[in-house]
Specification:
With about 400 residues, this protein is α/β, with parallel strands linked by helices. It has helices at about 10-15, 20-25, 90-100, 115-120, 140-160, 175-180, 190-195, 200-210, 215-230, 235-245, 245-270, 280-285, 305-310, 315-320, 335-340, 340-355, 375-385; strands at about 5-10, 30-35, 40, 40-45, 55-60, 60, 105-110, 125, 130-135, 165, 275-280, 300-305, 325-335, 360-365. Helix 8 packs across helix 11, helix 9 (about 215-230) packs antiparallel against helix 10 (about 235-245) and helix 16 runs parallel beside helix 17 (about 375-385).
């Protein structure tokens, strides 16, 4: 069976009127809703008529009222969005989806939950330059994994019929999420790569424990980077050589992947059948789905370049690693297709069915113009027809 979800931030679903939002979604023939309930900062102009301003600005955080008892043992406590204003609209969303037989997924961010890194800088990711990220949490800190598992447990315990989708499962310094970086030189791929690697205290300690000479590695990278900043082409060339050929750096990043695999395993332990992993395209490119493939979840959702995802063998590779019972879906941003050529969306969904994908999530609800729902409906109808439904 080919399932289609419409993904929306809970703010957008509620502000547009929960009943009206679900009416629109259900009118397309979608089988479910994916609601974002923890996230980073939000700033967008929404298309639907809203009960408040169409312009949403939020610093992010938890968009549901957490059960304090679940987080009692943690030093870091969930930070709720002011948008809630004492409410818990997630209860209403769950109830209405159940009454409509709409499958509901609750999407949370693994490491990019608004204000958590800024409030608890000891948990923050950090670049080699030493400034903690204002948004991104570091998987190497044990508290981060505990917070993530507590969030999943909280939602599973209270909303047991819902699957929990975990996104932003990437290990990086946070520079790419903190905002536009201005620099007095061209930030090429090698410099961007180096700046994206997390060198937080927790990350350094974890790498040192497996034998990486972190101090030497950092000194070497910083030395070449300093020359690059001063305008030396020799510094740029030397930095590229280290980034591409250094065994020490390879060992350092390998330690982070191993650590991330451990965090994922602990995150889903005992709850793998309730968790969907939203994984980056890079994990698919090599066909091994590392470090996601061995955790035993019932489904993964891939986001990235759809043309690459339609390449031969992706679904087969996934099933080889994760087993034929595990489902693979795709997350699609449909706004551009709907604006330029709605028939392109029809074609893409049909291709996904033909390639063996089991699920598509179309996003984002808040930016889909009401006049485009008919085009979404047509795309879903043709896709499900191709799947023999």
């Amino acid at each position: 069976m080919f399932d289609v979800h419409i993904q929306g931030h809970i703010c957008d679903l509620v502000d547009a009127g929960l009943e009206e939002s679900l009416d629109d979604i259900q009118s397309t023939g979608a089988t479910g809703v994916t609601a974002i309930v923890t996230s980073g900062p939000q700033y967008r102009l929404r298309c639907q008529a809203m009960s408040c301003s169409r312009l949403l600005r939020s610093r992010g955080g938890f968009y549901f009222q957490p059960d304090e008892a679940v987080y009692r043992a943690l030093q870091s406590k969930p930070i709720t969005s002011r948008w809630l204003a004492g409410r818990n609209p997630l209860d209403d969303l769950v109830e209405q989806c159940n009454s409509r037989d709409l499958h509901l997924r609750l999407r949370i961010s693994a490491f990019e939950v608004g204000r958590m890194a800024a409030t608890y800088p000891q948990l923050a990711a950090c670049s080699i330059l030493g400034m903690p990220s204002a948004l991104t949490l570091c998987p190497a800190h044990s508290e981060v994994g505990l917070l993530l598992r507590a969030t999943i447990s909280d939602l599973v315990n209270r909303y047991g019929d819902c699957l929990i989708e975990v996104s932003d499962i990437e290990y990086h310094s946070g520079i790419v999420t903190d905002g536009e970086l201005e620099a007095g030189f061209a930030v090429d791929d090698v410099v961007a790569w180096m700046l994206a690697i997390c060198f937080s205290e927790s990350s350094r300690k974890a790498a040192a424990e497996v034998g990486v000479d972190v101090e030497k590695l950092v000194s070497e990278l910083k030395g070449h980077f300093e020359k690059t900043l001063l305008g030396s082409s020799n510094g740029t060339d030397a930095l590229r050589t280290v980034m591409e050929d250094s065994e020490e750096l390879a060992a350092y990043t390998d330690s982070q992947l191993a650590l991330l695999e451990g965090v994922i395993r602990e995150m889903v332990a005992g709850m793998a059948d309730r968790v969907v992993l939203n994984v980056p395209w890079q994990s698919v490119a090599d066909g091994d789905f590392y470090p996601f493939g061995s955790c035993g979840v019932a489904e993964c959702l891939v986001k990235g370049d759809v043309d690459d995802l339609l390449g031969a063998g992706v679904v087969e590779s996934y099933h080889k690693v994760c087993g034929t019972e595990s489902r693979l879906g795709v997350e699609l941003d449909v706004v551009e297709d709907l604006a330029n050529d709605p028939q392109h969306l029809v074609s893409r969904l049909k291709q996904l069915v033909d390639q063996g994908y089991s699920h598509a999530t179309l996003r984002p609800f808040g930016l889909i113009p009401p006049a485009s729902w008919d085009a979404v409906k047509q795309a879903i109808r043709f896709a499900r027809r191709s799947a023999g439904q």
